[in-house]
Specification:
The longest helix is centred in the first third of the chain and has 15 residues, at about 35-50. Strands 2, 5, 7, 8, 9, 12, 13, 15 and 16 form a nine-stranded antiparallel beta sheet that branches. A hairpin with a 5-residue loop joins strand 3 and strand 4 (about 115). The chain has helices at about 5-10, 20-30, 35-50, 65-70, 115-120, 125-130, 170-175; strands at about 85-90, 95-100, 105-110, 115, 135-140, 150, 155-165, 185-195, 195-205, 210-215, 220, 230, 240, 245-250, 255-260, 275, 280-285. The termini are far apart. It is built from seven helices and 17 strands. The chain is globular and about 55 Å long.
């Protein structure tokens, strides 16, 4: 049963203007007045325990605004990329809040809160079916975490879909109470493929996540569009090597990973609430994994 504190945290979110507040946050994050942005950086660094020593540039005065600091680059040695053969690395810093086998087309968000792969990927039924009985993992980024997103394995970009939606927070309390949260919030559904098959990385927006962007398309939000948008990249041959940067979040949010049946069984066997850093070993392909049967996009 949900705690009273969960209800106190979640219920107001049904009534506040989440998109308006998020747009306001995005504006504030771009303020360049030195005394404002420097004091905000100092305050939030202290509140959230952000490790500035990992930043490629440790001098907060050199960041033009808070968003530039929040999405700061790190020193290369701060996030080494695991070189274990046949492995995936974590695409982000965060907490692996959930890891599970996909039962048919159902992903369990929390007890009594299943949602479908079709809903998560924006209603694309034929694409969603490719992940039936596959694996799913959810990684939650808190405000203290590094907020650039990297590719977990060598892969080629297929397409991307922007799915409009709500902007609930994605903290544990909201996950426990809001049905189908990750299939309800605004999100970017990014499709990849490699020699082992298809996989999907979903960037899930949340309140105060003032911006989501990718390296190939730039800033996607804001503005918050009312309709689904789709980009096809199959003819552009956009390739990434494990650990390459692919996108950024402003403030905390969530990444959901989906793999096809039998492709990466270890992805669905990670203990809940496991902390992880970008570049750390996430899962390994089974030794016999060299099938191309799921490659059709």
């Amino acid at each position: 049963m949900a705690k009273l504190t969960d209800f106190i945290k979640v219920i107001p979110q049904y009534f506040i203007p989440k998109h308006l507040l998020s747009s306001g946050m995005h504006w504030f994050m771009q303020v360049e007045t030195p005394w404002i942005k420097n004091n905000v950086i100092k305050l939030l660094t202290k509140i959230y325990g952000i490790n500035v020593s990992e930043a490629a540039d440790e001098d907060i005065n050199n960041y033009p605004h808070f968003n530039a600091f929040f999405t700061r680059a790190l020193k290369p040695e701060a996030r080494p990329i695991d070189t274990t053969p046949d492995s995936w690395v974590s695409p982000v810093d965060g907490l692996i809040s959930q890891s599970s086998h996909i039962e048919g087309n159902k992903i369990i968000q929390a007890k009594c809160h299943p949602y479908s792969v079709e809903a998560l990927v924006g209603g694309d039924i034929s694409y969603a079916k490719k992940f039936n009985n596959g694996e799913a993992a959810v990684i939650y980024l808190s405000p203290k975490d590094y907020h650039r997103i990297h590719i977990p394995v060598d892969a080629t970009l297929i397409s991307m879909t922007y799915v409009p939606g709500d902007l609930f927070a994605v903290n544990p309390a909201t996950v426990r109470l809001v049905d189908g949260l990750f299939a309800r919030n605004e999100r970017l559904v990014i499709r990849f493929k490699n020699e082992q098959g298809l996989f999907c990385l979903v960037m899930v927006g949340a309140i105060f996540v003032g911006s989501m962007e990718t390296v190939w398309q730039g800033k996607i939000t804001p503005e918050y569009e009312p309709n689904i948008q789709h980009w096809d990249y199959e003819e552009e041959s956009i390739h990434f090597t494990k650990g390459d940067e692919i996108g950024r979040f402003n403030m905390g949010s969530t990444v959901v990973l989906l793999t096809t049946e039998g492709q990466l069984p270890d992805l669905g066997k990670i203990h809940a609430d496991t902390p992880i850093k970008m570049g750390q070993l996430l899962a390994k392909y089974p030794k016999s994994s060299n099938s191309n049967e799921h490659l059709e996009a």
